[in-house]
Amino acid sequence: EPEVTQTPSHQVTQMGQEVILRCVPISNHLYFYWYRQILGQKVEFLVSFYNNEISEKSEIFDDQFSVERPDGSNFTLKIRSTKLEDSAMYFCASLLQDSNQPQHFGDGTRLSIL
Amino acid sequence: GNSVTQMEGPVTLSEEAFLTINCTYTATGYPSLFWYVQYPGEGLQLLLKATKADDKGSNKGFEATYRKETTSFHLEKGSVQVSDSAVYFCALSDQGAPGGTSYGKLTFGQGTILTVHP
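Predict the joint structure of the above. Result:
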């Protein structure tokens, strides 16, 4: 069964540095999402992406965040200048077309900001 | 806006006990409802889903029924196993127009930690 893959599985970065989290969604999917889960808390929506542009973003997704689909396969989340509170698990997900169908999630990237 | 509320955890049970994890939601329109499971150190896996009122989702012995009148989607299992120990998330997805804002976006509950002892 096709999978969403995320790299790296764990990223450790100094505060103020830029990070790029990478995702390869399922190949024929059209909708792409990033979610965040701070340790011990619930999964929160960050941003959705369709037709090469952002469809919706949450209030968490401020100017420090950006997303890109630079080619036909990758979907990246960039944090420009990381803060301690950005430490979390970041999940990428993709969806084919029908919102009645479930999103497929990657295994996540654990981001640790020092 | 949409919201999902799950029962407070953690929940600790003995093997073969009956499990209920309550989930209620607030949404405009007619959302699809999901239960996701997160095993220790792993990502989110879909457990089951229901897309319209009175639908019952089921998988691996778990069941949940979409109750529109009570806006609930409680998760149940008749006999839990140690391997069911995980965090369980209830979630909803707006059935908006394809390509529109919020299409497919998931709103999660806070998660319920389940620990099953032998």
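The CA atoms of residues 59 and 80 of chain B lie 13 Å apart.
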